[in-house]
Write a structure and sequence with these properties.
Length: about 425
């Protein structure tokens, strides 16, 4: 792909207040990534104009040769693109608030990507992403879809098994976890083995100079990085010892389920409500025509280093660098106990042909059993998202350890389904 005269990137969901992060990444990489056309597409004009206005000023301020076009038209935005970046939020932040708050009434964790809240985010998002994918098949069949819409793993599961479009899913947990671990252990050149599904992953090897420091990390009870958007709880030394690997941050919802539920119920505001406040503050800053760089407040939004991860990935594909990054792709033998067509989150070498997964030696029984259970949940959930099959939805939720109890999940499911009715046409096909 390298050497194209005109590199076009489309960002779908560009009204997101995260977008200036991506623009900063494109500006920083402009020497190796000659983006000539940048389409910022969103269906909400107010946010697109405010965020897009700042993005245009950032590009002008950096004096790089790149035309920034704001659009509400998906087809126009992706036609002839080399890369399509998706960061969509169907139903926007008010839908997230419903995902987080409704489950609490039924003593279930309400969370953006996990449990029944995350399930409904998947139900809304997967059909919208598949729509983008089907348009890409016609308008830019050779383009890469780089997705960081949540739930990233379930979306990868859906796209990679139901389309020929080249696609990778991304998350900022791996880079923060791996770098945090290297820093804590003073192993700057360590090769870290990262094994799991999106938001359900573990560090299973930390090798430097031929020595694996995993046992040392376990003995010291080393924790991965804490994410801005997760209530802080550290994993105890005893827990890490029992697991035999270093858990990543989202596992607090599984390993400390009751404590996280209690925190969520006692919180004055849910994370979605806080994000709405931060977003409005950001939009106000972005509206100031004097501002032409990324504001500091953006770091509080919880997406630290997303742009770095996304732009690094695009740069590695475009320039065929073959460096190692953590991505959501089909397993293809990377994790021995997972099927080849399971979307997993693993280390891979990234180049012009995409991701070449790095085979892991993970034989941890706890990780194996957890991953197989959660992959079964994801497969049922993806099928429900694509077909609107209610039995599949319920089967998925019965498997998920954050849901499970039928007497809780059924009324929560019914209320969430009704609350999100406008964004769930597949579940309301028979309703006239």
């Amino acid at each position: 792909m390298s050497g194209n005269k005109e590199l076009k990137i489309a960002i779908i969901g560009a009204g997101s207040t995260y977008t200036p992060e991506l623009i900063e990444g494109i500006i920083n990489k402009h020497q190796t990534l000659p983006v000539r056309k940048l389409y910022l597409m969103d269906i909400e004009e107010r946010k697109l104009n405010i965020v897009g206005g700042l993005c245009k000023r950032m590009v002008e301020h950096a004096k790089i040769n790149c035309e920034v076009i704001l659009s509400t038209d998906l087809d126009e935005s992706i036609t002839g693109a080399s890369f399509v970046c998706a960061q969509i939020r169907v139903g926007k932040l008010p839908a997230r608030v419903l995902d987080e708050k409704i489950p609490l009434k039924y003593d279930l964790i309400g969370q953006e990507t996990n449990g029944i809240g995350g399930f409904f985010k998947g139900m809304r998002t997967i059909p919208a992403i598949m729509n983008i994918v089907h348009r890409m098949e016609i308008l830019c069949p050779d383009a890469w879809l780089i997705n960081f819409s949540n739930p990233s793993g379930m979306i990868a599961e859906a796209v990679l098994n139901n389309s020929k479009i080249k696609m990778m899913g991304l998350c900022n947990v791996p880079i923060n976890t791996i770098d945090g671990l290297k820093k804590k252990m003073d192993l700057p050149n360590a090769e870290v083995e990262y094994v799991g599904l999106n938001h359900l992953a573990w560090i299973t090897s930390i090798r430097q100079d031929g020595i694996d420091y995993l046992q040392k990390a376990i003995d010291e009870g080393v924790n991965g990085a804490v994410m801005q958007n997760i209530p802080q709880t550290s994993f105890s030394h005893d827990l890490i010892k029992s697991i035999g690997a270093i858990p990543t941050s989202y596992l607090i919802y599984y390993y400390f389920r009751d404590a996280q539920l209690k925190k969520a119920k006692e919180a004055e505001k849910c994370r979605g409500e806080l994000c709405m406040e931060i977003e409005e503050q950001l939009l106000e800053i972005y509206s100031n025509s004097e501002v032409n760089t990324k504001p500091e407040l953006l770091s509080k939004r919880g997406g630290a280093r997303y742009s770095e991860v996304a732009i690094n990935l695009i740069d590695s594909i475009y320039n065929d660098t073959n460096d190692i990054q953590v991505v959501n792709v089909l397993n293809n033998g990377a994790i021995p106990f997972m099927a080849d067509n399971d979307a997993v989150e693993v280390c891979a070498r990234i180049g012009r042909d995409g991701a070449k997964v790095i085979k892991t030696n993970c034989n941890n029984e706890h990780i194996k059993d957890y991953m197989l259970m959660m992959k079964a949940y994801e497969k049922h959930a993806v099928n429900a998202a694509l077909t609107g099959n209610e039995d599949e939805a319920i089967r998925a939720l019965l498997i998920n350890p954050l849901v499970g109890d039928y007497n809780k999940l059924k009324p929560a499911y019914d209320e969430l389904k009704e609350a999100h009715k406008a964004f769930l046409p597949q579940f309301f096909k028979d309703v006239k």
